[in-house]
Structure formats: C-alpha cells, structure tokens
Amino acid sequence: MDIQYKADLNRHLTFQVPAESTHFVQVESDEELKEALKFSKEEKLKILLLGGGSNILFINNYEGLVIKIASRGIEVISDDGRKVAVAVEAGEIWHDFVLRALDEGWGGVENLALIPGCVGATPMQNIGAYGVEIKDVMIWLEAISTESGKLRRFSLEECALSYRESIFKREEKGKWVIVRVAYSLDRKSPLNTNYGAIEGELKNIPQQDRTHRDVANAVIKIRSSKLPDPKVIGNAGSFFKNPIVSSEDFENIQAKTPGIPNYPQSDGRVKLAAGWLIDQAGWKGHDRGTHGVHDMQALVLVNKGGATGKEIWQLANDVRDSVENRFGIKLETEVNQIT
Ligand code: EPU
Going edge to edge, which strands form the sheet with 262-264? Predict the structure, then answer.
C-alpha cells in the first residue's frame, strides 16, 4: 500500500481548486481497499472516498485519509441474447462504460452519456439526465463496510434511490464503500426521447431507424452545448438540486411567478428548475474574475482558473440567499462540500 502524505488532490478534482489531504492512497481491488480501511483505523484517521472527483468541492484541506477508488473491470454475468447483466467495478469511468455499452449494442444507459464521474458514484446520488436515472437500470451493488471491512450486496430496493438521493447519502452515510454495481441492459430497450431537446436533435432520423447510439449522440450534443467540459473549465455539473415542493407551496409560488417551469411528481409534489430560478434572479453568466456562474446553464458554478473552494462556496451562498429572498425557496446543494 503506497500511502502518500500531504497529497495534492487538485488533479483528482473536476472543480480544479487547490486542495490537500494529510494522507492519500489509491486502491485497485477490494483487498487493497480493506487494507486502506484497516490503516485508517490503526492510525485513527477519518476517511474520504474519491471516485471521479466530479461532485465535490474542497472548501478546506482534508485532515485524514483520502481513498481514491481506481478499480477496473466489466464482467458480463448473464446474457440471454437480448438482456445482459453486467457487473462493473466502481473505479470505471462512467462515460467509458456508456461507450462500451453502445459498442456492444446494449441499450439503457444512452441518455446518461457524458455524465462525469465513476461507476461507484452512480447509485450514491442516483445520477440522472434526459428522462433516465440509474435506478431504471441498476440491479444491485456491492459495498464494503468501513466499520467491519465485510462485503455486502444491496438490492436496488435496499438502496432506496430517489431524485439525487440514496441511503448512502442519508442513514448509511459514511458506512459503506461501493465497490461494484450491476446493471441490466437490453439490446432492444425502447428509446427514451421524451425530453424535448432530444426529440429535436433526432427529427431528421425516421423513428424506425433510430438507434441507442443516435440517442447518445443527441445527448452528447445537447450536454456539450450547455455544460462546460471539466477538462477545460473547472466545474462539478449542477451545483444545486432541483427543489421539490408541496402542491400548496407550488400554487403560492406560481401565483406570484407565472410561467415558472414545473414538473409534477407521482407523489403529488412538484419539482422546480433551480437553473431557471437562479437565471431569473439574475445570476446567469455572473462573473467574479476567477469564477462565476456558467453563461449557458445557471445551475453550474465554474472555476475559470485560480479560484479557491472558499470563493466558490461564497458564490454558492450568495446565489442561494438571493433565490431564497426572491422566491422563498431554499436550494440544496447537489455537490458535496469538504469543510
Ligand atoms: N433553465 C433556465 N435557465 C438556465 C438553466 C435552465 O431557464 O440557466 C430552464 C430551462 O429552460 C428548462 C428548465 O430550466 O425550462 C430545466 O433546465 P434543463 O432541462 O437544462 O435541466 P436542469 O433541470 O437544469 C437537470 C439535471 C442535469 C441534467 C439535465 C437534463 C439536476 C440538478 N440537474 O438540469 O444534471 O443534465 O436535467 O436531464 O437535476 C448534473 O446533475 O450535474 C446535471 C448536469
């Protein structure tokens, strides 16, 4: 086990902010992970798991052991000629897995193309885009207990995935390290083009000729036009979650804010677009020199070069206060903060 001390984390973080941890280790297998967990216990170190580093903002340096999950592997566990079940190691890059699925002709994840991050993070916050969420294709996941070092399999139901939520962000927070995830893919899965912009991109391809790859290409085009490439400009995707409010609260808000985009949920509540609220509050394209609010999508905060985590966090708080003053809605962050 190669423990690094006073490790520079910058290159592991898509926000590209300066950050250090007192201890750092990269693990490539369950065994190496167990060893790292044992070390953290012996040395009485706090631990922090890092996958793709695409949903995290370091406001301060980290006193403890950062464990970077770098396991690789995609294993077909069953294939009936149409449906395929695959178990994917947590350290695989999500988008690379989507490309592999497209090459193999496996449908189900094409709408989730280009989402930054690793496979292990996908159930954590039930990643989703363009009408599909990971809960639509996930079968189970395996995780190692940070306490006992033992492996446990969680069924999809046990993970309680909902909009940007899972048990791993709530009651089981900090207790497990996800090491692999199994997905069910389908060579003939119906295409999901309900999200308006996708249908628009595909309008020149006749319905019967459309493929999973066409949908992925449409998603890649839409995402690239709105969302900054973290390799070029530091960011962590949507900084805030879309708020979900009760139907009474929604009626009050709508009365004061006609035209507000809204997405009724199956439980009667209503999801609102945080990007729209932030945009209306005047923040889209807001520029603080080294950082700001993305000019194509107000939900994304960007590090244009040289910003610190503290500065970005200050901007996030200013945005949040302003939306609350204007609309009475408290935005919750989607990005995790290390304070
Ligand atoms: N809108 C604005 N101004 C903006 C941004 C959005 O008016 O600056 C409006 C749009 O016109 C639209 C509504 O807000 O009416 C929703 O916008 P959009 O369809 O772009 O999606 P979103 O709700 O802003 C969510 C996800 C994205 C995902 C897209 C597509 C969350 C927090 N974000 O964004 O996920 O790619 O839908 O499915 O749910 C991410 O999580 O990092 C992420 C990028």
Answer: 244-245, 270-272, 262-264
- CA dist list (Å): 13 to 116, 277, 337: 11, 27, 12
Residue 129 in contact with ligand 1 by CB distance below 6 A = yes
**Spatial separation of the C-alpha atoms in residues 252 and 103, rounded to whole Å:** 49
Q: How many whole angstroms from its chain centre is CA 214?
A: 23
Please state the pTM of the whole predicted model. Answer: 0.96
pLDDT in tens, 306-331: 999 999 999 999 999 999 999 999 99
In this predicted model, what pLDDT tens digit does every residue of 54-85 receive, in sequence order?
A: 999 999 999 999 999 999 999 999 999 999 99
Q: d(Cα 87, Cα 75) in Å, to the nearest integer?
A: 5
Q: CA–CA separation, 295 vs 14, rounded Å? A: 18
pLDDT tens-digit series, residues 267-315:
999 999 999 999 999 999 999 999 999 999 999 999 999 999 999 999 9
Say if ligand 1 is within 6 A of residue 54 CB: no
Please indicate whether residue 130, judged by its CB atom, sits closer than 6 Å to ligand 1: yes
Domains defined for the chain, CATH in brackets: 4-69 (3.30.43.10), 74-226 (3.30.465.10), 234-338 (3.90.78.10)
**How many A from CA of 241 to the centre of ligand 1?**
9
Candidates 299, 301, 332: which one to mutate for ligand 1, based on the most atoms within 8 Å of Cβ?
299
CA–CA distance, 218 with 111 (Å, rounded to integer)? 9
